[in-house]
Amino acid sequence: MTDYGNVDFCRSRWELGFGQSYRVIPNIIFGKAPTVAFRVRHDITRSVGIQTERAIFLINGTQGAGKSTVARALARRFERGACIDADDLLRLVVSGAASLEPPLSSDAEHQLRLRARVASQLADTFFEAGFTVAIAEIVVGRLDHFRVDIKSRPLLLVNLVPSLDIVKRRNEERINKNVFEPWSPILDRAIRETMSGIGLWLDNSNQTSDETVDDILLHAWKEGALE
Asked: How many C-beta atoms surround the C-beta of residue 72 within 10 A?
């Protein structure tokens, strides 16, 4: 099992390129996460049915947190639902794609900004056409971009924060997409430290995607709303 306290491979500063630099402190970055109030499912025994109240959902979390799966399941709960997986937007670039490995180049920064802008415009277009939209994206350090770029409201933020052991297992089960080391622990820490108190927090470690969606539908309008 990976020792999350071993950060020999980490430099003291990673340029994540999500709108800000995130400082990695040896022997602390993979230690105990700061206290974050998130919801653990205990008592919901039936699924929430088809929804009619529309919104745009930002589903945030580290690699392997379940963003894409939850976003698709969430969109299907609405009479008219669309899911935007932000990873798919960068795949539209077939030539000249910048590397997203740290430290990020200025070109990579621009392409990530483009990704956020396109996802936001696409979400607004679907919303204006009568759809509820779920965007699966890592928004740490770039939340203000989405707040500005997405014009439609309500805009609801959901942070998925499963345990790192669960994230590691999910990444290992992925085909050609295991990116746990070093990204997942670093991004998980960044989300917990820099976004505490913003949006709806869900520990979906032991939930099915449908159970997570139930929690989102019950609590996101009250706890996840962004101005």
From this structure: 18
Q: Of how many residues is the chain composed?
A: 227
Instruction: Give rounded-to-5 percent helix, strand, coil for the chain.
Output: 35, 15, 50
Q: CATH for 54-226, among 3.40.50.360, 3.40.50.10470, 3.40.50.300, 3.90.79.10?
A: 3.40.50.300
Q: What is the percentage of the chain residues whose pLDDT exceeds 70?
A: 76
- Quick one: DSSP state of residue 78? B
- Is the Cβ–Cβ distance between 101 and 24 less than 8 Å? no
Structure token digits, residue 175: 């085909």
Quick check: 156 and 123 in contact, CB under 8 A?
no
Report the candidate in 47, 72, 62, 42 with the shortest Cα–Cα distance to residue 164: 62
Are the C-beta atoms of residues 171 and 178 closer than 8 Å to each other? yes
Residue with tokens 């996460």: 33
Contact, 164 vs 184, CB < 8 A? yes
- Asked whether the CA dihedral 38, 44, 46, 50 is positive or negative, the reply is negative
Q: Residue 171 has what DSSP assignment? A: H
- 115 with 89: CB under 8 angstroms? yes
Ordered DSSP codes for 121-167: HHHHHHHHTT-EEEEE---TTTHHHHHHH--SS-EEEEEE---HHHH
pLDDT in tens, 95-138: 999 988 778 899 999 999 999 999 999 999 999 999 999 999 99
